Amino acid sequence: MALLFISKVDSPEDWTRAFGKLMPELEVRVWPEAGNKADIEVALVWRPPSEALLDLPNLKFIASLGAGVDHLFRDTRLPDGVPVTRFVDDDLTAMMTEYAVLHVLACHRRLPEYLEMQPKAEWRELPQSLARERKVGVLGLGVLGGAAARKLAGFGFDVAGWSRTRKVLPGVTCFAGADGFKPFLARTEILLCLLPLTPATEGIINRETLAALPKGAAFVNLGRGGHVVEADLLAALESGRLRAAVLDVFRTEPLPPESPFWRQPRVIVTPHVASITNPESGARKVVENLARIRRGEPPLDQVDPSVGY
Ligand code: NDP
Ligand code: OXD
Predict the structure, then answer these.
(1) Which residues does residue 172 pair with via DSSP β-bridges, in sequence order?
(2) Interval between CA 28 and ligand 2 midpoint (Å)
């Protein structure tokens, strides 16, 4: 039995070691060395080449190395009827929650503006609100957005969230669907994006969306770069309509040196590090799903290809 590992950004050595401890009989093959394709029962992938998942006659499931699956649905040809799973894990959620809280607090306490003042040796106090007076809005109330929204509500923020289907979350005002979008934006002073990238959410942060936020709002993007129309975001920052932004994800990664975001005042750039898949817990999930399939049960954390997440 073999697993086909395909990723240019994850360490095959770390994953091979993690599988070796849990399931020594599982042979980890690293793309493009697929060996006898009939042995391969699972493919563990991040942005696989377009044809890499075809012609694997005994493939039982395709596991995304990340929580997001946009890298798979973009231009990879997927074999019919083979389930796709994504990475859902308490450690991944905890790391993402920390990062979301870190940067919402930074925007709330006006850190991007103080960082802009520091090289100018400018000692000036900016007006400050209390957390209960600050309206935070979370785009996406799934595993990650839901956890972040709950934790932010615990800090005393006035938190709302927006999802495709309506949610009920204690301490969080929930909006849903197209009708809920504008009312959600109109009350959001710090907007945190934790949506998946799908055809429905591509470019969702655009001129119209940014204009619907109160003037002087801040934006934290931990979802995907494809959610943002970058020229519209830059224009909103330059005009002062948007006070600050924290950007962890970009349309082109690594962010090219010539990107204006590197030099844009009141913007914090981080290199797609909000939350990182841990090979130990990731391998546990894959092994658990192999066991479920053996028992004739469906794998956990399957995505719905019809909605793309
Ligand atoms: P989930 O699938 O658990 O949640 C997705 C949420 O988005 C759900 O609430 C869903 O609504 C909502 N949603 C999806 N489409 C729409 C839409 N068209 N309109 C409104 N709401 C929508 O995903 P996770 O929380 O696990 O992950 C979210 C994303 O975070 C990942 O897809 C990935 O892009 C990103 N990520 C980024 C990382 C980083 O390091 N920067 C690390 C890990 C993930 P509903 O509840 O109704 O289905
Ligand atoms: C993910 C990511 O989707 O790291 O897990 O972006």
Answers:
(1) 159, 169
(2) 22
Give 91-160 as a DSSP string. Answer: HHHHHHHHHHHHHHHHHHTTHHHHHHHGGGT---PPP---GGG-EEEEE--SHHHHHHHHHHHHTT-EEE
User: Is the separation of the CB atoms in 170 and 147 below 8 Å?
Assistant: no
Nearest Cα residue to 85 out of 225, 295, 226, 277:
277
> Of the bound ligands, which one is closest to the alpha carbon of residue 46?
2
Q: Which of 45, 49, 133, 151 is nearest to 95 (CA)?
A: 151
Distance CA 192, CA 189 (A): 10
pLDDT tens-digit readout, 257-292:
999 999 999 999 999 999 999 999 999 999 999 999
264: Cβ–Cβ under 8 A, 6 or more apart, which residues? 234, 237, 238, 245
- CA-CA distance, 153 to 167, in Å (whole number)? 15
Q: Are 32 and 11 in contact (CB under 8 A)?
A: no
- pTM for this entry: 0.97
Instruction: List all residues 6 or more positions away from 297 whose beta carbon is below 8 Å from its beta carbon.
Output: none
Environment class of residue 219 by beta-carbon count within 10 Å: exposed (0-12), middle (13-18) or buried (19+)? Answer: buried
Residue numbers annotated as active site: 224, 272
Q: Which residues lie with the beta carbon below 6 Å from any ligand 2 atom?
A: 66-68, 87, 277
How far apart are the C-alpha atoms of 206 and 257, rounded to whole Å? 23
Collect the ranges in the chain with pLDDT lower than 70. none
Ramachandran area for residue 45 (φ above 0: left; ψ -120 to 50: alpha; else beta): beta
